[in-house]
């Protein structure tokens, strides 16, 4: 396997691993309402974004494929942007509906107890 392909495979493996932890942490802070497709694109986008730095470091230091660093950064960043944009397409209507339901319900005793105020 040549160095360019190995760098890409390592980057995608890092995206899969790091994306799991990043997406899980993000979903704990702000739930995703858009369903399985929104969650899948969020996972892909988050993984690709956080994998940029380690992939570039591995490419530059270990594999010594310096000519590939800029296209790698741009490819991962553009793919991340597209995935997160698609995530937003699925998420926005569901988020607005959840927000509308929350506003209709008002402030309940349960909200007061869990707010931490």
Concise account of the structure shown:
This protein is mostly helical and 117 residues long.
Care to describe what's here?
With 117 residues, the chain is mainly α. The protein has one domain (3-105). It is 82% helix and 0% strand. It has 5 helices and no strands. α3 runs antiparallel to α4. The longest helix has 37 residues, at 69-105. It is elongated and about 60 Å long. The N and C termini lie far apart (58 Å). The model has no long low-confidence stretch (mean pLDDT 88).
Features:
117 residues, mainly alpha, elongated
- Number of E strands: 0
Query: Overall 3D geometry?
Result: elongated
Reported for the largest beta sheet, the result is: none
Question: Helix and strand string, N-terminal first?
Answer: HHHHH
Poorly predicted runs are none
Distance between the termini: 58 Å
Q: Tally the helices.
A: 5
Rg is 19 Å
How large is the share of residues in beta strands? under 5%
Instruction: Give helix % range.
Output: over 70%
Instruction: Return the average pLDDT rounded to an integer.
Output: 88
Number of domains: 1
* Estimated structural class: mainly alpha
